[in-house]
Each structure stands twice: as structure tokens, then as C-alpha cells.
Amino acid sequence: MRYTKHFAIALVAVAALLLATGCRDSRTIPMAGGRPQITIMVGGLEKVIYLPAMLTEKLGFFEQNDIDVKLMGEQSGATAETTLLTGDVQGVIGFYDHTIDLQAKDQCIKSVVQFSDVPGEVELVSKADAAQIKSVRDLRGKNLGVTSLGSSTDFLTQALTGQEGMSTADYNRVKVGAGQTFIAGMNHNGIDAGMTTDPTVAQMVKSGDASILVDMRNEAGTRAALGGLYPATSLYMRCETVESHPDIVQKVVTSFVQTLRWIKRHSPEEIAAKMPPQYANAGKDLYVRSVRDSIGMFNGDGLMKAEGAQNVLTILGKYSRNVAPVKDRIRLADTYTTRFVEEALRTNQ
């Protein structure tokens, strides 16, 4: 009941903000010196699952496509989507599942480039609980870390445990964020297990503070855990923005497609060398390892696979309290488009 009340209050707040801002991003995009000014919120700039965002900037592809892009970091995809709805940013790099979740709330958000076909997420078990937790079924009654309630890690946690017949009444979901806050939660008995990404995974496994229970950084692990693909990292925008500014959206998408193709042609060492040095604050070798372990998640072309989108809807239709009641009226065709990626691929052979 408490969660439902807080969610209702949040929806009212978003609605009020939408009225106050006049959905400004759907009507105009700032220009400076004849170049579009785009702001994109990223659900954790230092996370390897979102690596193409900063890499695109470092490779100069935004500038090459005559567009200025400002990247802003935010640890929770759920918070980032609120910023998109209020019109404070033009795009979000986060998980595709938010487009379906928001359609269930009568908001139209569309993925315009799909970076990955798998989540890139790992369920870690703390060293203190490793002897008791050997499989997903052992998570019953445990404290499980998620980025935040309503986040993609929350959906995925429910999907994993749901496969073993559990509901959220069978364990405690704990908001621990990502990075250092996740590590602190696991090392100080705040959580028994939790879902996170590289470079946190590489850091905790190397230190011996955690072990891997479920690995969804590759297709085989994702299919085993979720019964199919689960398209995750994407750039999504308000539908009004996509339809009102196709030329600008094309510039952004083309920049990211060029990066995805660049990733496939370069080694983890070469990729890591392009990233900001502070991303490797736990050590250069450890950061290279985290890139190597996760880089296979990126699809290389930016295209959405219809099979994956359907599996996301199937999972949310079972475990999302927003999607489940309206799953039969969700229109997947309105949650993503491949037209900009197809054009980018055609013109960048």
C-alpha cells in the first residue's frame, strides 16, 4: 500500500510538471550556431552497459554529424525517465523496458537505437551468503539489491525470482543504487544478493567480496535466465520529439550507430583507452577486464530484434504491476522504430 501511494503521488507530480513545462521538448530543440543542442540523460555514465554514450563523444561522432550533445549522469533509469517526461532532456539512454512500462501509463516513448539485445546485468551474491545461496530459488526470504523500485533491475529481479514461483512478498527489495553504494550495501549486510553491472561486477569478484549467481552479459546466459532475449540499453525519446524533429534524431542515431560499429572493430584495451580515466578508478587492468567481460552485449548495428521486444513485453506482462493489467493493449510497434538505424546503416557502409 505504501508503494502504491508513493507511486500515485509521483504520477501526480510528473503530470503537474508536464503541464508546467508545456512539453517543451516536443515543440523546440535549442540551437546554437546553427547546431542542435541535445541533452541526454544516461542511467549511469560510468557503467559499461552505457559505455557507447561517452565513447561516442570521445570518438567525435557527435561533432562529425554536426550536433552538440550534452550527456548527464543519473544512477536510476526510473529517475531519468521522469526527467524526460518533464521535458528537461530530449533523450534517455536506459533500458528499453521503460518504453513499455510508460505506455502502460499512457505515455508514448520510443526507442530510436537499440545498443544491446541482453541486459548486461549480473546477480551477485555476497561472500557472507555464498554458502546459503547457490541458485535463484535460494533467494527466498533474502534482501535483494536493486537500483530503485520501478527500475529495470527491479523488473529483472522479479522476472528471475518469478521463474522459481516467487513474488515480491517472498523477499525484500532494497534500493542500493549502483557503484559504491551497491558495494557498501553488500559489504555491510544491507543486502544478501543484488543486481548490478560492470565495472562493479569485476571489482567485487576480483576482491572476493561477491560471486556471480546469474550472468546476463551474453545471449546464452540471458536466454537461460529469462527464456529469450531481453533488449536493454537503448536511446529513447518522447514520440513527439521523434516525429517533430526527424532530421535531428537522425544525426543522433547515426552517431551512435557509428560507435557500435567501431566497438566491433576494436579490442577491449583500445575501447577502455578512449574512456575518461576516472572510470578506471579501481585500476586500469580491472577496467579493461570489465569492458572485456561485458562488451559482447552490444549488437554492432543498433537494430531492435522483434523477438526480443516481444519477450520484454511477456516478462513485464507477468511481473510489472503497471503493465500486467493492460498487457493485451500494449502496442509494441509504438515503443521502438528501426527507420533511423536503417538509414544510418545505408549511408555508412
From TrEMBL:
Residues 53-266 form the SsuA/THI5-like domain. PANTHER family: ALIPHATIC SULFONATES-BINDING PROTEIN-RELATED, TAURINE-BINDING PERIPLASMIC PROTEIN. It comes from the Bacteria. Keywords: Signal. The keyword 4Fe-4S does not apply. It is found in: Periplasm. Belongs to the bacterial solute-binding protein SsuA/TauA family. It comes from Nocardia arthritidis. GO terms for biological process: alkanesulfonate transmembrane transport. GO terms for cellular component: periplasmic space. Coiled coil: none annotated. SUPFAM superfamilies: Periplasmic binding protein-like II. This is ABC transporter substrate-binding protein. Gene3D superfamilies: Periplasmic binding protein-like II.
